[in-house]
Structures are given as structure tokens and as C-alpha cells.
Design goal:
Length: about 180
Amino acid sequence: MIVIGIDPGMANTGFGVVRTAGERMVALDGGVIDTEADQQVEKRLAKLHSAIGELIRWHEPKAMALEDLFFNRNVASALSVGQARGVAMLAAAEQGLPCFDYTPQAVKKAVCGSGSADKGQIQRMVASLLGLPEPPAPDHAADAFAVAICHAGTAGSRRAAAHFGRPRVGTTPAVARQRLAG
């Protein structure tokens, strides 16, 4: 399965394309899409949309994994990240590609085992998991690879759940035990 991970941002959007085969993961492509700060916002968004659409057409991933919006105090930054997320999701939707969101903490936990891992730890673990000779740089690319790894690692669980579906009401083990005991 091929997954494209996106770390959205107006100035720098990281992307990482990962292929999984069984337990093995390899990096196919990764980097950063840069936009110029002096350009109009709509032109910056158009560049992101075009570049992400081209990556999707080239690599033909089965899913797009995005880092969820983390809002701290800078409202303007949160809005621009939201706009970048929106054009990435639009590019995916135009290709019929499903999108999945992961919080920064979930990504860090999936890749490093701790939801409080720092940027350096993420970069080193991404390199280790993907067999790269050195950590990916800049950190936006590493974060995009990390979100792709997070998705790829949970895809098997989602496929199994989809195959078996949700349990019917009253058929879960806890309910069955209650019926037998009662």
C-alpha cells in the first residue's frame, strides 16, 4: 500500500510518500513544497494544490494522511494551516483519495512510542523505520513521513475492522456475559 503523508503549512508543506509491504516500509519520495511569502494567498494555495495533485497522480497512493490542526495561540497561523489542509484535501478528493487525520500526539506516539517526542527524535525514528541513511530534513518532510508511517501502521487494524464490521447490538462479549449471568 502507498500512503502520502502531508504536514500542511502555507509557507512550507511537507510531504512524504511511503510504501508498505507486510511489515516493511520504504520511502518513495519526500520533501517540502515552498511558497513565497510575497505572493498573494490564492496563488500560494494554487501552487500547493497543483503540486499535491501532481504527487498524487505520480505515486497513486491509496490514502492521504494529514497532521491534524494544532491550535495554540496564533490564530493567523492556524487559519493559514487550515487553508493549506483544505487545498491538500481538495487535491485528494479530486483524485478519489480518502483522507485520514492524526493529531500530532498520535503521530509521535506511533513513530517514537511517546506523544511528547521532540522534532529530533521524530526525524531519527523516521530515518530508522524507513531505512534512510540520515534523518529527513527539513522537519516538515520528517513530519509528513511520520504521519504516513502512523497511517500505514494503523491501516491493518482499520481493514480488519471494516472486514468484520461493527458488532451487532447485544453481541459483544460483555453483553453476552451479562445475559448468561442474568
